[in-house]
Amino acid sequence: MVLARWSAIKQVHAHEYATRFIFGGICTALAGLIASHWGPGVGGLFLAFPAIFPASACLIESHQKEHKRKIGRDGTGRGREAAALDAVGASLAAIALASFAAVVWLLVPRYNSAGVIALATVVWAGVSPVMWLLWKRRPRKPRTSSARLRDRGRALPS
User: How far apart are alpha carbons 143 and 135 in whole angstroms?
Assistant: First the structure.
């Protein structure tokens, strides 16, 4: 189940928001430079890059490591796992966003823009949960006990 924890907003420090803002601004500026050199079609592809994702993934990993460090444990595996889950969410969202863009690209030249945007939004809102459900129901390879122990930073008894 997807949950929103509003209390998590209080746990984010101002410098973390600044990091995301700066990284997003750099990505946007680079997309503008690419667009000025190779045209808006190519620049738009780079602008669609989830600009704050890399910064967010790093921050998520460091939060998990810090949380585990406070209780005296190594949080490296947990940090990687949390960042990986964030990457999955970003990938699924990118697929939904691509469906939105495809609808707009195909229909805007022929139909009313407002109607096309509304339809694209409905498509995006439909594709997003479908992608999430497909990911949740994917076949999973069972993890061995040695992999679980290794991820926790423990060695197997010999």
Answer: 17
